[in-house]
Structures are given as structure tokens and as C-alpha cells.
Design a protein that fits this description.
This protein is 43% helix and 16% strand. The chain is an alpha/beta fold. It has a seven-stranded mixed sheet with strand order 4-10-9-8-7-5-6, sandwiched between helices. Helix 3 packs parallel to helix 11. It is globular and about 55 Å long. The model has no long low-confidence stretch (mean pLDDT 96). It is an enzyme of class 2 (transferase). Keywords: Acyltransferase, Biotin biosynthesis, Pyridoxal phosphate, Transferase. One of its GO terms (molecular function) is 8-amino-7-oxononanoate synthase activity.
């Protein structure tokens, strides 16, 4: 028997390296934007979730600075003890107004929002149905709840019906979980149909709008708005860290739901409140979403242009593109070794993309995210790089 209780860690790391699963950070200098600097090299940034380009917006930065000067650098405690500030409630009201719900509650991250909400809503006597492609925070929140968890095939409404017909009667409550925009594929869930099924079988439905908020809908309220489901009986979770350029998560819904979460969501009750800077940045970003629909329009123009370029590119590139209805475009690559080589090749050509591989996704892919601040020349450079690297 080994005398070193930590020796297995190095063995595990070697296994991760052999499987091409090893990950490391890369230091990005300067402000976020369509062009970033890594190790002294300027790279066109197609790897960011800053869809509207607000993380580096001077107005959002100024709002964060002003809040820090007024309230200090940290909330200093949980919201129920010493961490609550007037600006927290302002942000929650702004989110509720954007999402057209009665109220909202802000968590210190989107991950905490999912863990806290799911584990508060269901327990050991309950059932969760979860899309197989859901984000890890939804899956881990489901496990943490102690409920029975059944996965259904991605986007399979008939599969949801089948599971409910077979199992719903055996459980006290049922919660259906789905992303609205799937972050590693770029497609949308069939939300109206899933919601119809939830209503028929008396189920709660929680949707993750992390990649929808600020991006979809006439008002930028998200995929729920875009898919015509505003005002219907569902729970909307989302994040401030993507299109809104800040940090934090939220849940929006009815007033009784939000009041319940303030009293039962452990990841809200026992966590220090969101920092004043992040809170103010989120509030400032929502104001820009409300006031500048042209920014959203520019994002979708860029998405359309890049899709057109990819469709017109050589067959070996165009045929790899997964179906997408969002600013997330993914190209299939055979294996982890190849996707890493393509990612490094693009980096050498001055382009930063996501080289995504197992275990994050079942199959390797190049993940491209489009921003409102990209220029046509940026898109053209990306496609040229892909054509030179994906020739067969």
C-alpha cells in the first residue's frame, strides 16, 4: 500500500495528458475586445462570450468605478447579513423588467444560481428531466438536489413526453431543465413545445438563458422572448458574465418564487453578495441593451456574414459546420489531437478560437463566437485560416 495519500494525483494528471484532455490557462493582456494580446501577439478574438462587446465599454467601466468609490470593493457579507446594498435591488428590478417577470434575485455567479435554485426547488421525492446537452451547472445542480434525474435526448420533445407518461405519477414534483441556447453547439431548444408538455403534465420548467440574455429578442430579453414564451409559467435563469460583460447570475420569475429562493437557496444565503463593481456593471450593461438595439443588430449582421462566408468556403470547411441559430458557430473535427492542432494553427495565424474536446463535449470541435464589435475583415481572416487548415 502506498504511503503517499496524494500520489494518485500525479498518476491522474498523466492520464489526462495521454488522453489530450489536459488544460492550462493563457494570460490575456488589456481590455476585452475583438482583438486581444496574448504573450505579446495580437489575436482576433473569436473565443469570447462578450457578444455585445460590453465588457470593455467605457460606460460600463465607469459605472463599476463609481460603485466601488461609493460602496467599496466588496459586499463584505451575505445579502441577509451585511452584504445587501441598494444597487443590488436596482439590478434585480432591472432584470425583472428586462425579462418581463414579477421579480428577480441575483447570485454571485451563474453556476451558483443554478445550484441554488435547482436544489431549493426539488429534493429526494422529486423528478428532474434534463436535456443531455445541458450545461454542467444544470447537471450538477440536479445531482446536488438529490432528486431522481433522467436525461432525455437533445431537444427531443417526444422523449420528454415518454418519460413523463412513464414516471411523473411516481413523484411529488417534477422539474424540467434545459438551456435555451446550447453553448457548445449553438442551437436553440424547442422551448414552446417543451413548455406545452410541462404545462400538460404539471411540471416546473427552468431554462438557462446564459447565452440568450442580451442577444435574442426584439428587446434583448433573451431566447424566451425570441421564441414567444414571455409571460408563460417558467423560471428564467441567466448570467451577467456573457453579453452583459460583468459577473454574476440571476433567477427571474414570480414574486413568490423569488421570495422562496431568498429563504431556501443555500448558494445565495451562505455566499457573500455580488461585488458593487460587478453589480453596477451589470446594471449599466442592461441600460445599454435597452437603449441601443443597433448593437444587437450589428451582432446579427456579423453572424449572417460569417455564416455566408463559411457556406461559400471549400467543402471541407462548409461541411463541418454544425446547425446553429446563434452567435456560436461550431465546426466538427475528428479528434482531440486534430482540434488542438487546428487551434494552434489558427493562433499562429493571429486568430483565437475555442478548441473544445472531451470531456467538455462528446466530440471535438472548433468553437467560434461572434461579437458585435467584429469587423468584416476579422471574419474573412478567420475563414481564410480555416480553409488553409481544414483541407480534407
Amino acid at each position: 500500500m502506498s504511503t503517499n495519500p496524494y500520489g494518485w494525483i500525479e498518476d491522474s494528471l498523466r492520464t489526462i495528458h495521454r488522453a489530450k484532455w489536459y488544460r492550462s490557462v493563457q494570460e490575456i493582456r488589456g481590455c476585452p475586445g475583438p482583438v486581444v494580446r496574448i504573450d505579446g501577439q495580437e489575436l482576433i478574438n473569436f473565443a469570447s462570450n462578450d457578444y455585445l462587446g460590453l465588457a470593455g465599454d467605457s460606460r460600463v467601466i465607469s459605472a463599476a468605478i463609481a460603485a466601488t468609490q461609493l460602496y467599496g470593493t466588496g459586499a463584505t457579507g451575505s445579502r441577509l447579513i451585511t452584504g445587501h446594498r441598494p444597487i443590488h435591488r436596482e439590478l434585480e428590478r432591472a432584470i425583472a423588467e428586462l425579462k418581463q417577470t414579477e421579480d428577480a434575485i441575483v447570485f454571485s455567479s451563474g453556476y451558483l444560481a443554478n445550484l441554488g435554485a435547482i436544489s431549493a426547488l426539488v429534493g429526494k421525492r422529486d423528478l428532474i428531466l434534463s436535456d443531455q446537452y445541458n450545461h454542467a451547472s444544470l447537471k450538477n445542480g440536479a445531482i446536488l438536489s438529490g432528486a431522481t434525474v433522467l436525461e432525455y435526448k437533445h431537444g427531443d420533445v417526444e422523449g420528454v413526453k415518454f418519460l413523463l407518461e412513464s414516471h411523473r405519477k411516481d413523484y411529488r414534483r417534477c422539474l424540467i431543465l434545459t438551456d435555451t441556447v446550447f453553448s457548445m453547439d449553438g442551437d436553440l431548444c424547442p422551448l414552446p413545445e417543451v413548455l406545452d408538455v410541462a404545462e400538460t403534465y404539471g411540471c416546473m420548467l427552468l431554462v438557462d438563458e446564459a447565452h440568450g440574455t442580451g442577444v435574442f429578442g426584439d428587446r434583448g430579453a433573451g431566447a424566451v422572448e425570441y421564441l414567444g414564451c414571455t409571460g408563460r409559467g417558467l423560471i428564467q435563469m441567466g448570467t451577467l458574465s456573457k453579453a452583459l460583460g460583468s459577473l454574476g447570475g440571476y433567477v427571474a420569475g414570480t414574486a413568490p418564487l423569488i421570495d422562496f429562493l431568498r429563504n431556501r437557496a443555500a448558494s445565495w444565503i451562505y455566499t457573500t453578495g455580488l461585488s458593487p463593481a460587478d453589480t453596477a456593471a451589470g446594471l449599466g450593461a442592461i441600460a445599454i441593451v435597452n437603449q441601443e438595439p443597433q448593437r444587437r443588430a450589428k451582432l446579427w449582421q456579423n453572424v449572417k456574414y460569417l455564416k455566408q462566408l463559411l457556406a461559400e468556403s471549400v467543402p471541407s470547411v462548409a461541411s463541418r459546420l454544425l446547425p446553429s441559430e446563434s452567435p456560436i458557430l461550431c465546426l466538427q473535427v475528428p479528434d482531440a489531437q486534430t482540434v488542438l492542432a487546428v487551434g494552434e494553427g489558427l493562433k499562429a495565424a493571429g486568430i483565437l478560437v475555442g478548441a473544445v474536446r472531451p470531456p467538455t463535449v462528446p466530440t471535438s470541435r472548433i468553437r467560434v463566437t461572434v461579437m458585435a464589435t467584429h469587423e468584416k475583415a476579422h471574419c474573412e481572416r478567420l475563414v481564410e485560416g480555416l480553409q488553409s487548415l481544414l483541407k480534407s
